[in-house]
Specification:
Shape: rod-shaped
Number of helices: 4
Order of helices and strands: HHHH
Length: 92
Amino acid sequence: MNEKLTRLAERRAHLVEQAAAQRTALAQTIAPWRAPLALADQGLAALRFAKRHPALMVGTAVVFAAMWPRRAGKWLRRGWVTWQVLRKLRGS
């Protein structure tokens, strides 16, 4: 019985070392992707915020349109086209 426990302890130690090596390799592989993934995460957080606060987005658009009417028209066209493309991609 003691020999079996010794083999199990050795196997466990080997597996722990192997897992540590895999974690290190994974961390090195993922390192270049940290910044782009963080930026994408911030973008998704901004989209969630906009979805939760539509009145704030509309108010910002109204202020923008009042301050710069010519630019607002251009951005409204772009927004409308983007909206239509997204609706078609979603299949709505």
